[in-house]
Amino acid sequence: MKRFFDIVLRLSHYNVKIVFGNKFVYFVLSAVLFYILTVVINLFSDSEIMESDAYGMLLVPSILLIFYPMCFGIQNDQDAKIIEIIFGIPDYRYKVWLFRLLIAYVICFAITLVLALLTDWLLVEVPPVKLTYQVMMPVLFVGTLCFMLSTIVKNGSGTAVVFTLIGLVLFIMSSVLEESKWNLFLNPFDVPLDKNPELFYTTLLYNRIILLVGTVIFVLSGLYKTQNREKFI
């Protein structure tokens, strides 16, 4: 059992280096700095910090954490000269990229949970686990969308540009959709005072189902896109 955990630990450490391109510390620092900047802005605003504000504080840093490994993961394989090795072993690539997706999201969840605990301790009383769970729902959708796009574009910078354009459209649409179940940035802690809370939570449930279905579709599409070696490499 000890040997098994040792192998998993070594494998995780190696894949973290590949996924984050040896820039893991920089992305953690960027997420934390963005969180601090958001906190400072909210502290100097006239309004009181609420649970809904805490959700917004954590959402962008979490997306930043998952953005790079999902957009540049495949390119990092190419840069590290291991893409041919991955394709040389039947079905091995699926296990590798699924494992890397898992690692990236576990790390993102852990860091987001730490930030949620800090928010609960320093700023406003929030349920840290629930807050982290709710933040991770759109992060799952965004990250897997980036993964799927990376298998199509096959270039990290190109994928980042395409997703930035898509993200801009989604952000603009969020103001139009507001409390719609199709709003990617629907805030589960911002319950409208002028509407039936039960109706809002029903909308939220459908929203989360849509995000999970989209996540599964993006993962399967991305893995299917890698099936043809000649077209992929």
Q: What's the gist of this structure?
A:
The chain is mainly alpha-helical and 233 residues long. The protein has nine helices and no strands.
What would the keywords be for this entry?
mainly alpha, 233 residues, single chain
Specify Rg, calculated over alpha carbons: 19 Å
| Principal-axes shape call | globular
Largest sheet: none
H/E element sequence: HHHHHHHHH
Note down, in words, how this protein is organized.
Helix 3 (51-79) runs antiparallel to helix 7, helix 5 (92-122) packs antiparallel against helix 6 (128-153) and helix 6 packs parallel to helix 8. The protein has helices spanning 2-19, 24-43, 51-79, 83-88, 92-122, 128-153, 156-177, 197-225, 229-232. The chain is an all-alpha fold. Mean pLDDT is 78; it is low at 81-89.
What are the SSEs and their pairings?
Elements: H1 2-19, H2 24-43, H3 51-79, H4 83-88, H5 92-122, H6 128-153, H7 156-177, H8 197-225, H9 229-232
Helix pairs in contact: 1-5, 2-3, 3-5, 3-6, 3-7, 5-6, 6-7, 6-8
